[in-house]
Amino acid sequence: MDHEPEEEFAEFYQRARDGCLRAVYASVGDRALAEDLTSEAFARAYASWPKVSKHPAPRAWVVRTALNAHVSWWRRRRREVAWDSGLDVADAATGGLTLDPALLAALRALPARQLEVLVLRIFLDLDTETTARELGIAPGTVTAHLSRATSTLRGSLALDTDKKQEPVS
Amino acid sequence: MIDQYNQDSSEESMLGTLGTAFDGVRLDRGADEVMARGRVLRRRKRAVPALAVAGIAAVSLSLALATQPSGGKPLAYHGTVVNMDNAAFSVHTDAKTGTVTVTARELIDPKLLEAVLAKAGVRADIQVRLVGTGILTIRPCTYTGVTELDVPGVITGPYKVDGAESITVHPAAMPAGSVLDFQYYYAPGDSSSHGPSVMSNQLLSGMPTGDTPSGCVTSAG
Question: Cβ distance B163 to B193 under 8 Å?
Fold first, then answer.
């Protein structure tokens, strides 16, 4: 099917934006920053769309670009402030959804390569071969990183649950 | 074999749990906004080789103007150094760099600040707006007939200095005819002062016509 580039990019953006945001959010642990980084990466993807559209995993290209981007332009564009009835001013948290801080902390405590493998597999649903190609590592190494990451997370989250369940003396 | 199956199954379950935890995370920015930014980046990328060629020809001229910023204007606009402080705002020209720092505290009279900024070489359109309390999302306004210019180095900030918000503007780097759009939002305070305030700034291709802009501020209650 022959699409205009704008239409083709808009379709790609609609399909990919949530998964890419989740991958970036899991990597940086800050929702507002993740939105700015992801938006900047998609803008760069659009600026180089003839090249990016031919990339074997364009969503992975967006995520990796996001994690290397600077976001001052988006920061300047949108500001959120919370002025309560006491008229204190503070930067507001973005969005209504808040994730379990223990989960975000456990993700961010993973070694960088394990986290990369994990977010590409979970949020972009890339298979082992594509993940390996994207990260420039062997498929066996992807499997090993994934296994270690899930094992570490299981341990961290179980530990956190145990702590929460400790009786108050 | 069974252990491997159990491990795989447990791994898939963990991945599924993690994926589900992020289900509500969605990027609500429209494709139009992202594509508009992409067009600016694309134009800038195309402009770089042209600027590189022009740069070679301009080397000798640059040496001659070494004490002046690009564009050949003097560091302080027309030599005017502005240093003004009052209860509502401050404007200071840095004589070394030519940059102008504007701090807004209790801004009431936008015309007075526009006049002071004009002396400092910054053509500005300033709006003062009373807004409600709650969570506010502030974005650059959209105007009919003028567009936002993305010129790096013209506007720095806003940033906080002693509790008040400031920006720094580089007048010599402003393209000809461009205008600093300066929105000052404040919450209701008591009878003698404003509540908290924030500012939003952008560089426009020209002076807005006076029509009401759109998209500047939304409130989530």
Answer: no
Per-residue pLDDT of chain B (221 residues; tens, 9 = 90+): 444 445 555 778 888 888 999 999 999 888 988 998 898 888 876 665 554 444 444 433 333 333 334 443 444 555 588 999 888 999 999 988 899 999 998 898 999 999 999 999 999 999 998 887 777 888 888 888 898 888 878 988 887 777 788 899 999 999 999 999 999 988 887 767 777 888 888 999 999 987 788 878 877 64
Residue ranges of A 97-116 with Cβ closer than 8 A to chain B: 97, 99-100, 103, 107
Pick from B93, B24, B211, B16: nearest CA to A154: B16
A-B CB pairs within 8 A amount to 133
In angstroms, the CA A85 to CA A68 distance is 39
Tokens of B89: 């705002």
Neighbour order of strands in the sheet with B83-85 = B83-85, B89-93, B100-104, B164-169, B155-161
Question: Scanning every residue of chain A, which has its alpha carbon at the shortest distance from the alpha carbon of B21?
Answer: A99
For residues A124 and B79, give the distance between their C-alpha atoms in angstroms, rounded to a whole number: 56
Q: What is the CA radius of gyration of chain A?
A: 19
Alpha carbons A120 and A64: distance in angstroms, whole number: 10
Q: Is the complex ipTM higher than 0.85?
A: no
* Cβ within 8 Å, pair A42-B21: no
What are B133's two structure tokens? 């309390």
DSSP secondary structure letter of residue B23: T
Dihedrals phi, psi of B115, to nearest 5 degrees:
-65, -40
* Residue A102, C-beta contacts closer than 8 angstroms, at least 6 positions apart: A156, A157, A160
Q: Which two tokens stand for residue B95?
A: 């004589």
The encoded tokens of residue A112 equal: 């960088």
Residue A89 tokens, joined: 């001013």
Q: Write out the H or E segment, with its range, that includes residue A76.
A: helix A72-77
Question: What's the order of all strands across the beta sheet hosting A89-91?
Answer: A89-91, A79-83, B134-138, B217-219
CB–CB of B198 and A39 under 8 A? no
Q: Is the peptide bond before B74 cis (omega within 30 degrees of 0)?
A: no
Phi, psi of B98 (to 5 degrees): 80, 0
